[in-house]
Amino acid sequence: MIRITQLKLPINHTPEDLREKISRTLRCGKLPFQYKITRQSLDARHKNDKKFVYTVDVTFEDEKKISRRVYNNNIMSISEKPYHFPEPGTEPLHHRPVIIGSGPAGIFCAWYLAKAGYCPIVLERGEEASRRKETVDRFWKNGVLDPDSNVQFGEGGAGTFSDGKLNTLVKDPFGRNTEVLKRFVEAGAHREILYQQKPHLGTDVLIGIVETLRRQIEEMGGTVRFRSKVTDLKIEDGALCGVEINGEEILPAEICVLAIGHSARDTFRLLHRTGVFMEPKSFAVGLRMEHPQSMINEDLYGEPENAILGAASYKVTHTCQNGRGVYSFCMCPGGYVVNASSEPGLLAVNGMSYQARDGENANSALIVTVTPQDFPENGPLGGIEFQRRLERKAWEAGNGSVPVQTFGDYKANRTTEAFGEIRPNIRGSYAMANVRSILPEEIGDSIEEGILAFGTKLKGFDREDALLSGVESRTSSPVRIVRNEEFQANIHGIYPCGEGAGYAGGITSAAMDGVKIAEAISKKYRNF
Questions:
Q1: φ, ψ for residue 516, nearest 5 deg
Q2: Rounded average pLDDT over 381-393
Q3: How far apart are CA 97 and CA 517, in angstroms?
């Protein structure tokens, strides 16, 4: 196979243009060939001459003959290494593996264990995706929160109500990244996610995809149980022997995968009480900021709208004078700020987009890293208490609604009394407030300094009527559940997994970690 990198074409090119470009680059004349796009990115440095940049893999009957014709650093011969799931081990399993949580980590772990013949049982405290959507829509309409089925909990995990970003910085030579994307495509995603630089699904597409993956798990022998909250773990002689569900049912198990997500605070307390080793970890907190999407498009594309490119996204970072770093996170082009609360009396926000990304505003989290030194108490749960204090202040600032403030009022540290040209695009009720009062002074000052710095890079980013809402406190897990070389916790049979356990940071990396845990179980145990 021959790989060509740095193939550049105008953004309005046709498939025939790309084929002709490949042919000219390889000087292959009319020789027949097949090609596969492995990466597509955008070069928009020249606003009037924007180009797509491709990496393609090309196959011929006689590749050596073609290779001898060209001498180019962007052309190389490669051999594709397909993903390989390990063969089952030899140690007997007396009970079916239990997976707690049906977010990306849990559902992908279950999918691969089911395919390999392990008949896993998935326990999900929330509802199936379609019912969960109805519950979340009601919450956004009337403010009545279901603590077990909401934006954080339920089939698909927190990623179901997000932009559905699939890009990841995880380097994985084993092919898990491509394997995860293939699973998404086979479950209903567009094939373009296999090669786009910044693939995304959108919350409207994700709901159908996670339900398809669940049906596939069930067809392969797995079981998925909803409204099944794990309330205790049964331990004997340092090993797992059972899982308690809803405070009444004991499910025998010697394997339990903890794919609990980063918002399962009651489960973290349970694990701490049970003696599972955990440690606090750094994460980041801040606010959501909204701008007109047309303004962001103008900044990055040189035009307010482009039908081919869709809504533009940005990524900005700044190191403050106080030494803190502030940066954008989970940017949602054409999206919405959503009330992402999961506990009564506490309020957190997140960003969400539909696949079309056709909302009026762009929004992104602007966040500052916090470390265990910032937490109000020592121990593994100190970060959770830090989050909860911020979320309580956010709830109080908006009296239960999402608090919103213009950047002009944020700088003056005063309550907003009127919006400018930008109107909030928020799912759930919102109220004018003093959002800055929610944050510790050092974090609030860092965000202001960052926004002013970003305004020198993106025109209008620091405009007075840009909107800030809060609090963005669920960026990643504040806890890491310690695991060894076999991916087990200090209690035998417990496998910490995914974002909640502190080993992933997004949909794709969490799914990849779920696959990794399935591999570890398969290498050790015999299937049924």
A1: -60, -40
A2: 98
A3: 12
Please state, for a pLDDT cut of 70, what percent of the chain lies above it.
100
Statement: residue 58 has pLDDT above 90: yes
Rounded to whole angstroms, the Cα distance separating 261 from 514 reads 12
Task: Find the helix or strand (DSSP H, E) in which 417 lies.
Answer: none
Report pLDDT digits (tens) over 272-330: 999 999 999 999 999 999 999 999 999 999 999 999 999 999 999 999 999 999 999 99
Residues 6+ apart with CB under 8 A from 316: 327, 328, 450, 454, 457, 458, 461
CA 182 to CA 177: how far, in whole Å? 9
Evaluate whether 366 touches 450 at the Cβ level (below 8 Å).
Answer: yes
* Average pLDDT rounded to a whole number, residues 5-29: 94
Which pLDDT score, from 0 to 100, does residue 67 have?
A: 73
Residue among 438, 325, 427, 332 at smallest CA distance from 390 = 438
Structure tokens at 220: 């392969």
Contact criterion met (CB below 8 Å) for 58 and 4: yes
- Contact (CB, 8 A) for 494 and 59: no
Is residue 78 packed enough to be buried (19+ CB in 10 Å), middle (13-18) or exposed (0-12)? exposed
Q: Which residues contact 307 (CB under 8 A, 6 or more apart)?
A: none
Q: 170 is written with which tokens?
A: 């995880």
Angle between helices 265-274 and 382-397 (to 10 degrees): 160
pLDDT of 70 > 80? The answer is: no
CB 168 within 8 A of CB 177: yes
Q: How confident is the model at residue 69 (pLDDT cuts 50, 70, 90)?
A: confident
Helix ranges (H only) for 95-175 are: 104-115, 129-142
pLDDT band (50, 70, 90) for residue 167: confident
User: Cα–Cα distance between 364 and 398 in angstroms, integer?
Assistant: 20
Beta strands in 230-292 (DSSP E): 230-236, 239-245, 249-252, 256-258, 278-280, 283-292
- Where does residue 188 rank: exposed (0-12), middle (13-18), buried (19+ CB within 10 A)? middle
Which helix (H) or strand (E) segment is 403 a member of?
strand 402-406
Residue given tokens 């773990």 in the structure block: 233
The Cα–Cα gap between 240 and 243 comes to: 8
Residues 6+ positions from 490 with CB-CB distance below 8 Å: 238, 275, 276, 277, 482, 484
d(CA 211, CA 131): 11
Does residue 13 surpass a pLDDT of 80?
Answer: yes
